[in-house]
Amino acid sequence: MSRILTLSVRCAVCGQTSEQTVTASRYVPDHGLDGKPAGNAPGMPVMECSHCHHAAADLADPVPETVRTYVYSDGYRHWYASQTDPILRQLEGAALIAAQTDLVTAARWHLAAAWYCEDHAMPDRAEQNRRQYLEMTLASGCKLTPDGMLPYLDSLRLLGRFEEARALAGQLQPAFARLFEEQDIHRKILQLELHLIESGDAAPHMVSEVM
Ligand SMILES: [Zn+2]
Fold first, then answer.
1. Is residue 201 part of a domain?
2. What pTM value is reported for the model?
3. Helix (H, G, I), strand (E, B), or coil: what is residue 6?
4. Is 184 a domain residue?
């Protein structure tokens, strides 16, 4: 069971306080090859300020001036007003805001938004968010860790981009062989990915399949 906590949080953008409900971390025993928690569990908990509509993992985290400017901008205001799904608005809003300063975090929000859309029958928007996750991860220039590589690889496969997925998996194989023992979960997942890519399988698969 997850525990819901209510906290009073002061927003780093507008300085006002709002009540935020936070789901205390809960153990999810299985997840997709892209990191998606099993059974509709939220991918990334998000807070939204009820005053200025800043959205982030923690509203109290200090923000640079570029973020404050963006939250108060007409662009963000108009985008916010045009959204109909309040949860998706928080996740995509957090992505838009994070993209002002931190593409790695923005990419993660897009992935969480993709998961939400998949669970709520919005396949086009899911695909769009997953593409943005890939693009922003690349654009960040950040070197992915092995744990970050596997969701990236899985997202290529889930989007049906098998040629790119095959090329990346081929690059990962010798690296993983150096880094991990043969029975290590990373190598098992990579083997499963290679099999799925060769089979042209673009369906979600779970980590439990290799455990
Ligand atoms: Zn605020």
1. yes
2. 0.93
3. strand
4. yes
- Asked whether 78 and 119 are in contact (CB, 8 A), the reply is no
Residue-wise pLDDT tens digits, 105-123: 999 999 999 999 999 999 9
**The token pair that represents 37 in the structure block:** 């928690």
CA 17 to ligand 1 center in whole angstroms:
8
The full 3-state SS of 75-93, as one line of letters, equals HHHHHHHCCCCHHHHHHHH
The H or E element that residue 17 is part of is: strand 17-23
- Between CA 208 and CA 167 the distance in angstroms is 25
Which of 2-11, 17-26, 79-88, 145-154 bottoms out in mean pLDDT, i.e. has the lowest?
Answer: 17-26
Residues spanned by the domain of 197 = 143-211
The label of the residue with tokens 């007003």 reads 81
Give the distance (Å) from ligand 1 centre to CA of residue 29. Answer: 35
| DSSP code, position 160 | T
Instruction: State yes or no: pLDDT of 2 exceeds 80.
Output: no
| Ligand 1 centre distance from Cα of residue 64 (Å) | 14
> What is the band of 22 on the pLDDT scale with cuts at 50, 70, 90?
confident
